[in-house]
Predict the 3D structure of the following.
Amino acid sequence: MTAMTAMTAMTAMPAALRVHDLVRSPALQLRVLAGEAGLDRPVAWAHVSELEDPTPWLLGAELIMTTGIAIPRSAVRQRAYIERLHAAGVAALTLSAHLHVPPLHREFLDAAEDRAMPVLELPLQVPFIAVAQEVAAAAQADARNRLSAQVQVYGALRWLAAEDLTAAELFRRLERLSGYSLYLCTRQGHPLLPGVPVPGARHAALLPASADPAPTVPGGHLLPVPAPGGPAGYLLALERQDDGPGRGVPPAGLGVVQHIATVAALQLSMVRHERETLRRRGAELLAELVRDALDPQTARRYLIRLGFTEEALVLLAVLEGEDGAALDDAAVVHALDEAAVPYLVLRRHEGLYVLLADSPPALDALAALARTRAGVSRPFAPGSTFGVPRREACLALTRARASGRALVACGDDTTDRWLHEDPAVLDGLVDQVLGAPLRYDGEHGSALVLSALTWLERDRSTEEAARALHIHPNTLLYRLRRFATLSGRSLSSTADLTEVWLALRAARMAGRLP
């Protein structure tokens, strides 16, 4: 095997052999000239190089050996040489004593010390091949350990089939076999599999900005978990510390981590299949809930089976595409899966109904959907009648449509709750109260209805309403008198004013305001 072939076969992964293992070997008689703080660096391969810049041919974790021909003569170039090796991830530099090594300048030794880059001296009577054999023997033993770990990871497929392990139990076993702490998360950092931890705050910086990250990160590996349509998330495998399962097991390497990512993908496929089955059951349940076809106890019991808690409140949302666009139901489901909240979905002619837990992540997931509008009811208890929440969600969706907002939740304003949800009833109210003023506005290009609405929305403040309409207060007063005459309702009567206000709200809901 040539040196280049050997280097290609190795990866820049943490190895079982460390620089200090070679320094402590009596047969090699290595002496530390500088960079003693870096003796814990891993060594994946040993390679002879007499090039002043060998870094284009390095993968990292190599022990570079030289007779001294590669060492520049000037202090500036010596410092640049050691800096290049350090930047390439070289484990250590070994110099053969009494051959071609030039005088080592203080700048060279200081650069090695500053970067904890070990510089070793090998006696002339010890050939380079002795060092290479030590490293190769350790690599061979490490390869056997990794092969054993790979075989055992393949056994995870048998565990899945025969032992009915949970995802958390499966990954605890894989941690003990691989020598890594394992984390799984979606691309947004949410849990990917139930019970498997996500990277904590101190590891968040390791998560990639792109969908195709480099496989090696400081202290371990980061791999995508494949799924139809692109990566479902990421597997982060970090070398284990001295505590916890897997202590004493050397890291098994990138190949084993790749197998674990495949196991994660299989487990995720099983979970998603189960979720799809639950979604179909949930759609059937939500259809019955919307019709109020279940008694409260039965409804509550079914919701608990599908992941809702008995104490937590729920929300009913109605979603539609923005500006007449078709709603991407799959995107809604994916967003709710990412938010890791229990939910039910049901497609009906008026939109996509979603029953979900009352939580900020759930609302954030709905609000973040592109080209989607959503109306959300007030929180209510699982098992309660759906008549009021359904009306609230539909009215909130109407307000979202009228205001152009992505999401409107039914708030403290209870006026719309007293309006009928049947569009024909709303149109009848508008025609009865506002029919004449609306026709007058249409025929004359005036703004009697808009002026009345603006005045009422500003608590009947003539000055504020006139400023909002950019007209003189006297002009506004004239319009209000004309509106009262045409509508036959006195704006000084509480009863008439209430009727006008409800008719105006109904006109807004029905999209009949100018």
Summary: The chain has a mean pLDDT of 83. The chain is about 45% helix and 15% strand.
